[in-house]
UniProtKB/TrEMBL annotation:
Keywords: Cytoplasm, Nucleus
Highest taxon of the lineage: Eukaryota
MF terms in GO: sequence-specific DNA binding
Source species taxonomy: Eukaryota, Fungi, Dikarya, Ascomycota, Pezizomycotina
Biased composition (Basic and acidic residues): 238-252
Name this protein carries in UniProt: Translin
Subcellular location: Cytoplasm; Nucleus
Protein backbone atom coordinates (compact mmCIF):
# COMPACT_ATOMS: atom_id res chain seq x y z
CA UNK A 1 0.00 0.00 0.00
CA UNK A 2 1.52 3.27 -1.10
CA UNK A 3 1.93 6.22 1.23
CA UNK A 4 -0.64 9.00 1.12
CA UNK A 5 -0.10 12.55 -0.06
CA UNK A 6 0.27 15.06 2.75
CA UNK A 7 -2.08 18.01 2.38
CA UNK A 8 -2.67 21.33 4.11
CA UNK A 9 -5.95 22.44 5.68
CA UNK A 10 -7.28 23.56 2.26
CA UNK A 11 -6.62 20.17 0.67
CA UNK A 12 -3.59 21.26 -1.35
CA UNK A 13 -0.59 18.96 -1.56
CA UNK A 14 2.22 20.06 0.72
CA UNK A 15 5.73 20.60 -0.55
CA UNK A 16 8.17 17.90 0.43
CA UNK A 17 10.08 18.88 3.56
CA UNK A 18 13.41 17.83 4.96
CA UNK A 19 11.60 15.68 7.50
CA UNK A 20 10.36 13.47 4.67
CA UNK A 21 13.99 12.45 3.98
CA UNK A 22 14.67 11.53 7.62
CA UNK A 23 15.80 7.97 8.38
CA UNK A 24 12.92 5.49 8.61
CA UNK A 25 12.42 3.68 11.92
CA UNK A 26 11.44 0.06 12.35
CA UNK A 27 7.77 1.01 12.96
CA UNK A 28 7.53 3.51 10.12
CA UNK A 29 5.92 1.12 7.63
CA UNK A 30 3.42 -0.12 10.20
CA UNK A 31 2.20 3.39 11.04
CA UNK A 32 1.98 4.31 7.35
CA UNK A 33 -0.31 1.30 6.93
CA UNK A 34 -2.46 2.53 9.83
CA UNK A 35 -2.59 6.00 8.27
CA UNK A 36 -3.69 4.64 4.90
CA UNK A 37 -6.36 2.46 6.48
CA UNK A 38 -7.74 5.46 8.37
CA UNK A 39 -7.72 7.54 5.17
CA UNK A 40 -9.69 4.82 3.41
CA UNK A 41 -12.14 4.64 6.32
CA UNK A 42 -12.85 8.38 6.32
CA UNK A 43 -13.15 8.51 2.52
CA UNK A 44 -15.58 5.57 2.57
CA UNK A 45 -17.59 7.12 5.40
CA UNK A 46 -17.88 10.44 3.56
CA UNK A 47 -19.10 8.68 0.40
CA UNK A 48 -21.73 6.78 2.38
CA UNK A 49 -22.92 9.89 4.24
CA UNK A 50 -23.28 11.86 1.00
CA UNK A 51 -25.22 9.07 -0.73
CA UNK A 52 -27.37 8.58 2.38
CA UNK A 53 -28.29 12.27 2.40
CA UNK A 54 -29.25 12.19 -1.30
CA UNK A 55 -31.24 8.93 -0.99
CA UNK A 56 -33.11 10.34 2.00
CA UNK A 57 -34.10 13.43 0.01
CA UNK A 58 -35.28 11.34 -2.96
CA UNK A 59 -37.24 8.98 -0.70
CA UNK A 60 -39.02 11.97 0.87
CA UNK A 61 -39.91 13.24 -2.62
CA UNK A 62 -41.41 9.83 -3.45
CA UNK A 63 -43.52 10.02 -0.28
CA UNK A 64 -44.67 13.55 -1.13
CA UNK A 65 -45.75 12.34 -4.58
CA UNK A 66 -47.61 9.37 -3.09
CA UNK A 67 -49.54 11.64 -0.72
CA UNK A 68 -51.32 12.98 -3.82
CA UNK A 69 -52.90 9.57 -4.45
CA UNK A 70 -56.64 9.57 -3.66
CA UNK A 71 -57.60 5.88 -3.67
CA UNK A 72 -56.49 2.59 -2.16
CA UNK A 73 -55.94 -0.69 -3.97
CA UNK A 74 -55.53 0.94 -7.38
CA UNK A 75 -52.76 1.77 -9.82
CA UNK A 76 -51.15 5.19 -9.46
CA UNK A 77 -51.97 7.99 -11.89
CA UNK A 78 -49.40 8.06 -14.74
CA UNK A 79 -47.77 11.32 -13.63
CA UNK A 80 -47.23 10.03 -10.08
CA UNK A 81 -45.95 6.66 -11.31
CA UNK A 82 -43.49 8.47 -13.58
CA UNK A 83 -42.17 10.54 -10.65
CA UNK A 84 -41.79 7.45 -8.45
CA UNK A 85 -39.99 5.46 -11.16
CA UNK A 86 -37.64 8.35 -11.96
CA UNK A 87 -36.62 8.83 -8.33
CA UNK A 88 -36.18 5.09 -7.74
CA UNK A 89 -33.84 5.03 -10.73
CA UNK A 90 -31.78 7.84 -9.17
CA UNK A 91 -31.71 5.97 -5.86
CA UNK A 92 -30.51 2.85 -7.66
CA UNK A 93 -27.59 4.74 -9.20
CA UNK A 94 -26.63 6.26 -5.85
CA UNK A 95 -26.78 3.01 -3.88
CA UNK A 96 -24.90 1.10 -6.53
CA UNK A 97 -22.10 3.64 -6.25
CA UNK A 98 -21.44 2.58 -2.62
CA UNK A 99 -22.35 -1.11 -2.86
CA UNK A 100 -18.66 -2.07 -2.85
CA UNK A 101 -18.14 -0.06 0.34
CA UNK A 102 -20.81 -2.05 2.19
CA UNK A 103 -19.24 -5.45 2.68
CA UNK A 104 -20.81 -7.40 5.60
CA UNK A 105 -18.26 -6.01 8.06
CA UNK A 106 -18.57 -2.45 6.79
CA UNK A 107 -22.38 -2.69 6.68
CA UNK A 108 -22.39 -2.85 10.49
CA UNK A 109 -19.59 -0.34 10.86
CA UNK A 110 -21.42 2.33 8.87
CA UNK A 111 -24.99 1.40 9.74
CA UNK A 112 -25.64 4.69 11.55
CA UNK A 113 -24.36 6.64 8.53
CA UNK A 114 -26.79 4.70 6.29
CA UNK A 115 -30.05 5.79 7.90
CA UNK A 116 -31.43 6.54 4.45
CA UNK A 117 -32.52 2.91 4.15
CA UNK A 118 -35.19 3.49 6.80
CA UNK A 119 -36.56 6.37 4.71
CA UNK A 120 -36.43 4.19 1.59
CA UNK A 121 -38.32 1.37 3.36
CA UNK A 122 -40.92 3.93 4.44
CA UNK A 123 -41.40 5.07 0.84
CA UNK A 124 -41.56 1.51 -0.52
CA UNK A 125 -43.97 0.34 2.17
CA UNK A 126 -46.24 3.37 1.62
CA UNK A 127 -46.33 2.74 -2.13
CA UNK A 128 -47.05 -0.96 -1.53
CA UNK A 129 -49.89 -0.17 0.88
CA UNK A 130 -51.54 2.32 -1.46
CA UNK A 131 -51.39 -0.13 -4.36
CA UNK A 132 -52.27 -3.38 -2.53
CA UNK A 133 -53.65 -2.27 0.89
CA UNK A 134 -51.27 -4.73 2.56
CA UNK A 135 -47.99 -4.40 4.43
CA UNK A 136 -44.88 -5.06 2.39
CA UNK A 137 -42.86 -8.03 3.66
CA UNK A 138 -39.10 -7.95 4.36
CA UNK A 139 -38.50 -10.15 1.29
CA UNK A 140 -40.59 -7.86 -0.91
CA UNK A 141 -38.74 -4.86 0.48
CA UNK A 142 -35.37 -6.38 -0.36
CA UNK A 143 -36.56 -7.26 -3.86
CA UNK A 144 -37.82 -3.70 -4.36
CA UNK A 145 -34.56 -2.03 -3.31
CA UNK A 146 -33.05 -0.97 -6.63
CA UNK A 147 -29.46 -1.91 -5.80
CA UNK A 148 -27.26 -4.64 -4.36
CA UNK A 149 -27.58 -3.28 -0.82
CA UNK A 150 -28.92 -5.41 2.01
CA UNK A 151 -31.90 -4.24 4.07
CA UNK A 152 -31.38 -5.23 7.71
CA UNK A 153 -34.24 -6.23 10.06
CA UNK A 154 -33.78 -2.90 11.86
CA UNK A 155 -34.00 -0.95 8.57
CA UNK A 156 -37.30 -2.71 7.87
CA UNK A 157 -38.73 -2.35 11.37
CA UNK A 158 -37.90 1.33 11.76
CA UNK A 159 -39.00 2.10 8.20
CA UNK A 160 -42.43 0.60 8.89
CA UNK A 161 -42.54 2.53 12.18
CA UNK A 162 -42.34 5.72 10.09
CA UNK A 163 -45.11 4.42 7.81
CA UNK A 164 -47.64 5.10 10.59
CA UNK A 165 -47.14 8.85 10.21
CA UNK A 166 -47.71 8.70 6.45
CA UNK A 167 -50.87 6.62 6.90
CA UNK A 168 -52.15 9.18 9.39
CA UNK A 169 -51.49 12.08 6.99
CA UNK A 170 -53.05 10.18 4.09
CA UNK A 171 -56.13 9.36 6.17
CA UNK A 172 -56.51 12.98 7.31
CA UNK A 173 -56.35 14.46 3.80
CA UNK A 174 -58.56 11.87 2.09
CA UNK A 175 -61.15 12.00 4.88
CA UNK A 176 -61.41 15.79 4.51
CA UNK A 177 -61.82 15.42 0.74
CA UNK A 178 -64.22 12.45 0.68
CA UNK A 179 -66.11 12.75 3.95
CA UNK A 180 -65.29 9.14 4.84
CA UNK A 181 -62.33 6.97 5.75
CA UNK A 182 -60.73 5.67 2.60
CA UNK A 183 -60.97 1.90 2.11
CA UNK A 184 -61.84 -0.85 -0.35
CA UNK A 185 -65.12 -2.29 -1.63
CA UNK A 186 -65.02 -5.08 0.96
CA UNK A 187 -65.47 -2.69 3.88
CA UNK A 188 -61.84 -2.59 5.03
CA UNK A 189 -60.69 0.96 5.66
CA UNK A 190 -57.48 2.64 6.72
CA UNK A 191 -58.53 2.81 10.38
CA UNK A 192 -58.82 -0.98 10.58
CA UNK A 193 -55.49 -1.37 8.80
CA UNK A 194 -53.59 0.99 11.09
CA UNK A 195 -55.21 -0.68 14.12
CA UNK A 196 -54.09 -4.11 12.96
CA UNK A 197 -50.55 -2.95 12.23
CA UNK A 198 -50.36 -1.03 15.51
CA UNK A 199 -51.42 -4.10 17.50
CA UNK A 200 -48.69 -6.14 15.80
CA UNK A 201 -46.06 -3.55 16.71
CA UNK A 202 -47.30 -3.33 20.30
CA UNK A 203 -46.46 -7.02 20.67
CA UNK A 204 -42.82 -6.53 19.67
CA UNK A 205 -40.26 -6.98 22.46
CA UNK A 206 -39.17 -3.55 23.65
CA UNK A 207 -35.74 -2.36 22.58
CA UNK A 208 -34.21 -0.20 25.34
CA UNK A 209 -33.01 2.62 23.08
CA UNK A 210 -34.04 6.24 22.67
CA UNK A 211 -34.84 5.72 18.97
CA UNK A 212 -37.25 2.88 19.73
CA UNK A 213 -39.03 4.80 22.50
CA UNK A 214 -39.47 7.84 20.25
CA UNK A 215 -40.80 5.77 17.36
CA UNK A 216 -43.26 3.76 19.46
CA UNK A 217 -44.58 7.02 20.96
CA UNK A 218 -45.00 8.58 17.51
CA UNK A 219 -46.72 5.40 16.28
CA UNK A 220 -49.27 5.52 19.11
CA UNK A 221 -49.97 9.19 18.44
CA UNK A 222 -50.62 8.46 14.75
CA UNK A 223 -53.01 5.62 15.60
CA UNK A 224 -54.94 7.84 18.04
CA UNK A 225 -55.28 10.59 15.42
CA UNK A 226 -56.78 8.19 12.88
CA UNK A 227 -59.13 6.87 15.59
CA UNK A 228 -60.30 10.43 16.24
CA UNK A 229 -61.00 10.84 12.53
CA UNK A 230 -63.26 7.79 12.66
CA UNK A 231 -64.96 8.88 15.88
CA UNK A 232 -65.57 12.35 14.48
CA UNK A 233 -67.24 10.95 11.38
CA UNK A 234 -69.48 8.59 13.33
CA UNK A 235 -70.45 10.87 16.21
CA UNK A 236 -70.54 14.29 14.57
CA UNK A 237 -70.15 13.55 10.89
CA UNK A 238 -73.28 15.38 9.81
CA UNK A 239 -72.03 18.58 11.46
CA UNK A 240 -68.69 18.65 9.67
CA UNK A 241 -68.46 21.03 6.72
CA UNK A 242 -66.98 19.74 3.48
CA UNK A 243 -63.19 19.85 3.60
CA UNK A 244 -63.11 19.76 7.41
CA UNK A 245 -59.75 18.76 8.87
CA UNK A 246 -59.37 17.90 12.59
CA UNK A 247 -57.40 20.31 14.76
CA UNK A 248 -54.55 18.15 16.02
CA UNK A 249 -53.58 20.85 18.54
CA UNK A 250 -56.58 19.84 20.61
CA UNK A 251 -55.28 16.29 21.07
CA UNK A 252 -55.10 15.19 24.68
CA UNK A 253 -51.54 14.59 25.89
CA UNK A 254 -50.25 11.05 25.78
CA UNK A 255 -50.71 9.68 29.34
CA UNK A 256 -47.61 7.51 28.92
CA UNK A 257 -45.37 10.51 28.19
CA UNK A 258 -43.48 12.13 31.07
Amino acid sequence: MSGGVKRDRDGNARAKSARDDAPRGQFHDMFETFRDELDEHYDRRERIIKVSRDVTALSKKIIFSLQRVKNLHAEFPPNIQKEVDSRLAEISTLLNSIAADLTPLNRQRYSYSLRCLEELVEALSFAHYLRHQTLITPAETQAAVPADVQISPFDYMYGVFDLFGELMRFATVTTAQRGELVGNDEGRNILGDIHELGCAYEMLPEIPTKDYRQKITAMRQSVVKVEKLGYGLVVRGSERPKGWVPDMKDDAPDPSSP
